[in-house]
Amino acid sequence: MAKLDFYFDYSCPWCYLATKTVRELAQEGVAIRYHVWKMPKDATPPPKPEGYMEAATAKLRELRVQLNMPLSSPIQSDTVPALIATKVADDLGRGEAFVEAAFLAHWANKQDISDRNVLVKIAESIGLDATNFQTALEDGAGQAAFEADLQQAQALNIDTIPSYLNEEARLLIHHFEDMPTLEQLRHIAQTK
C-alpha cells in the first residue's frame, strides 16, 4: 500500500494549500500520516532572497485561485495549541478531519486556533465529543505526541515544511517554487 508522511504547521500557508493534494492522495487510497512540526526556537534559517516575499505572495494568490481555496491572513501566530489538539484528534481517530478543519479555521475563517474553545468547536464540527476531547487535551498525551513528532522530525533532519516522506523517498520544501504536483507526491508515496 502506498503511504506518505506529511509534516506541517498551521502557520504555513503552503501547508494549508498542500492539504488539497494530500487529501486527493488519501482519496486514491494512499495512507497519509500527519505529523506536526514547529520551527525550533534556536533555528537560524537563511535569509530569503530579495523579492522573495512579493513573489511568494503572488504565488499564493495564483494557487488560491487555481486550487479554489479561500486564503486570508490569520489573526494569530501561536499554533502550538492547535498542533497539540491535532495529536489528540488523531488519537481519537479523527486526525485528518481535524487537520483540514483547523487549517480552514485558521486560513479561511480567521479563527483563533490558539483558543481552546475554538479547538473544541473544531473537534465538535468533525464529530468528536466535546467533553471527551477536552478531557483528552488536559491529560498530557497530546503534548507528549506533539513532542514525539518534533523529536522524530529532528531525527529525520526535517528542517522545513511542508515535508513529504515515506520510507524510501523524501521531499522537503524550502522554496515555494518547489511545491509538488499531485503526480510528484503520488510517486513519492509509491516509492519502495
List the helices and strands and how they pair.
Layout (H helix, E strand, L loop, with lengths): L2 E6 L4 H15 L3 E6 L15 H16 L12 H12 L3 H14 L7 H10 L4 H9 L2 H15 L7 E3 L4 E3 L9 H9 L2
Parallel strand pairs: 1-2
Antiparallel strand pairs: 1-3, 3-4
Helix pairs in contact: 1-2, 3-4, 3-7, 4-5
What would you say this structure looks like, in words?
This protein has 192 residues and is an alpha+beta fold. 52% of the residues lie in helices and 9% in strands. It is built from eight helices and four strands; from the N terminus they run βαβααααααββα. The protein has helices at 13-27, 52-67, 80-91, 95-108, 116-125, 130-138, 141-155, 182-190; strands at 3-8, 31-36, 163-165, 170-172. The protein has a four-stranded mixed β-sheet with strand order 2-1-3-4, with helices on both faces. Strand 1, helix 1 and strand 2 form a beta-alpha-beta unit. Helix 1 (13-27) packs parallel to helix 2 (52-67), helix 3 runs antiparallel to helix 4 and helix 3 crosses helix 7 (141-155).
Kindly report the spatial arrangement of strands forming the biggest sheet.
2-1-3-4
Q: Give the end-to-end Cα distance, rounded to a whole number of Å.
A: 10 Å
Average pLDDT, rounded to a whole number, is 93
Uncertain stretches = none
Instruction: Give the ordered list of helices and strands.
Output: EHEHHHHHHEEH
* Biggest beta sheet attributes: 4 strands, mixed
Radius of gyration: 16 Å
Mass-distribution shape: globular
Beta-strand percentage range: 5-15%
How many strands?
4
Helix content: 40-55%
Number of helices: 8
Overall structural class, as computed from helix and strand content, comes to alpha+beta
